[in-house]
Amino acid sequence: MSLFLEQFPIVIHSLNVGFLQTLKLFLVTLAGAIPLGLVISFGSMSRIRILSGFSKTVVWIVRGTPLMIQLLIIYYFPGLVLDNAIWGGGETGRFMAASVAFIINYACYFSEIYRGGIQGVPVGQEEAGLVLGMTRRQIFFKVTLLQMIKRIVPPMSNEILTLVKDTSLARIIALQEIIWAGQSFMKGSQGISGAIWPLFFTAVYYLVFNGILTVVLGRLEKKLEFFR
Fold it and tell me: What are the CB-based long-range contacts (under 8 Å, 24+) for 48-56?
């Protein structure tokens, strides 16, 4: 027990540092993937066949391959194949590579949710807007978009909660997120060797973070009830 109490402050400090990295990756991914996903969804629904085909192919490839493989390719491919290590070898470079991989991956998933939400709005509402003299831009932002948001909140919430857990995959390129911090106490890189109990504490971080997000997203969904 005395050893546990002695190690506890060191473990918590390391896990806090790792969690901040996890939180940064989570926020950067959302900031990039949410707007990019909408752009990709427009590409998938475009009447220009080349653009539509390209967008759908990208989505198919990204959704059909593991995120871990995408992380490894994005991080190592420029240096090993193109002989241009654009990311560098430091923590900042690994974070940038992980951010790019996560943004592209989640943008493709979000794009399908956007597409389903947009196509789920009855066509008659667009026709009614045109009859009333509204432009297609006005119809999209004042009619379609508002109803789409209500439809996509539940599936988007699910993807956001999944993102929290998926950030742990970034350790495959040695990004020092919270799981990496917990594992370091097993490997002895923090001066403590063979300790597995810090890994159980990482689960607490995820549970609390996901619990807060579940409450926030649940309240958001209730606020959008007036769209029914």
Answer: 55/111
**pLDDT (tens digit per residue) in 165-177:** 999 999 999 898 9
**Do 37 and 106 touch, CB atoms closer than 8 A?**
yes
Helix axes 91-119, 145-166, angle to 10 degrees: 150
Which two structure tokens, joined as six digits, stand for 131? 């009859």
Two structure tokens written together for 41: 């969804």
Sign of CA dihedral 110, 113, 115, 117: negative
Q: Is the pLDDT of residue 1 over 70?
A: no
C-beta of residue 201 within 8 angstroms of C-beta of residue 182 = yes
Q: For residues 76 and 33, what is the distance between their CA atoms, to the nearest angstrom? A: 22
Mean pLDDT, range 91-100, rounded to an integer: 94
What contacts 10, CB < 8 A, 6 or more positions away? 190, 191, 192
